[in-house]
Amino acid sequence: MVQRLDIRSARYDRMGECVLMNGRQITLAVTRDALEALYDRAFEPEEAVLKAVEEVRRLTRLAEIVPADDGRVLITREWLLNHGRYLPAGAQGR
Fold first, then answer.
1. Which H or E run contains 7?
2. Per-residue pLDDT for the chain (94 aa), expressed as one digit of tens each?
3. Chain centre distance of CA 4
4. In what order do the strands lie in the sheet with 6-13?
5. Fewest C-beta atoms under 10 Å: which of 12, 33, 34, 89?
6. Rounded to an integer, what distance in angstroms lies between the CA atom of residue 59 and that of residue 19?
7. What's CA 93's distance to the chain center, in Å?
8. Under 8 Å between Cβ of 52 and 5
9. How many whole angstroms separate alpha carbon 48 and alpha carbon 66?
10. In 14-92, at which residue ranges do the beta strands (DSSP E only) sit?
């Protein structure tokens, strides 16, 4: 199913240190360290939200590839930098 991410729902989760966005049937979480690795600089929480919104097309595509765990899709540094082309280390057996 094609996901559509609602950029108006973008918010920062301080406990998980990630940016959250609502999709149709999922919640997408992209870690701040993944965004920092992509842009090769550190971000404040508000900046991380803005950068996640800028990358909404890439994140939408990854939301279709990465398997959801209890309705939450977690985009880590490995997924974001590899553009979803390769499985993260240790995920081959899933």
1. strand 6-13
2. 567 899 999 999 999 999 999 998 899 999 999 999 999 999 999 999 999 999 999 999 999 888 889 999 999 998 888 855 554 555 544 4
3. 13
4. 6-13, 18-22, 27-31, 72-75
5. 89
6. 11
7. 22
8. no
9. 21
10. 18-22, 27-31, 72-75
